[in-house]
Amino acid sequence: MADQADVYKYFEPTVQLNNLALSNIHTLASWGVGTAAGILGLTGWNGFIFFVINWIAISALVFFVKCKGDSSVYFKSSFMDVAGTPMFNTLLSYVLVWTLMHALVYIYD
């Protein structure tokens, strides 16, 4: 009987809307962080470390500010939806913006 209660625990359109909002937050943040990394002139592993540090900070902000410390209310798989799942999706956007901004700023050095 408990398994049947878990099926009705989440309203799927609301969960999808939450996932869309989270995806937008992470995508826009990765563009901003990529722009900052490119302008700062970070190269190699320094740029990836910069991304990971900012990813942890942004995920913590989303978890504590937007989810009020309990992400299981808004997402099905709790903290992994907030921090883990969208990381690889936005890493490519970060690298694209990072290299673009680095090339634009440091092209004539």
TrEMBL record:
GO terms for biological process: autophagosome assembly; protein folding in endoplasmic reticulum. It comes from the Eukaryota. Its main location: endoplasmic reticulum. It is found in: Endoplasmic reticulum membrane. Keywords: Endoplasmic reticulum, Membrane, Transmembrane, Transmembrane helix. The chain crosses the membrane at residues 45-65, 86-108. It is a multi-pass membrane protein. GO terms for cellular component: EMC complex. Belongs to the EMC6 family. This is ER membrane protein complex subunit 6. It comes from Coemansia pectinata.
